[in-house]
Amino acid sequence: MELQGGFSECKTDEILWNQGNTLEGSMTKYEIIYTEIALKDLRAIKRGDQGYIPKIIDKIDFCLGEHLFDSIRQCNKKKLKGKENTHRLHIQRRYTIFYTIEEAKQKQFVRIHMIIGYEAAHKKYSNIDL
Question: What pTM value is reported for the model?
Fold first, then answer.
């Protein structure tokens, strides 16, 4: 469904995404861009767990949007060993976010590639390269 201002509706907990795959209204220090795969991953979260989606987005905004290069206790994130630019963020041993840090026009931003269950993520560590 197309909304005013070029925004389209994401049925996942009434979250709105703009055409550039950034969260509407998300004002963070670093821009966060979601790939189509990451958006599909969010939409695929089981119905019983959909209330958790705002928590995932809040944690992404806080840890990657505001504290991308800070080492703080609330953010369980790290660069994956042996990978050039692949990082992960754990969200309460429930979900794992795989992301890259990129730069364009002297501005750094985060690209979210996958949002998957914690257990499934551990099986992908050795094979993932974004």
Answer: 0.77
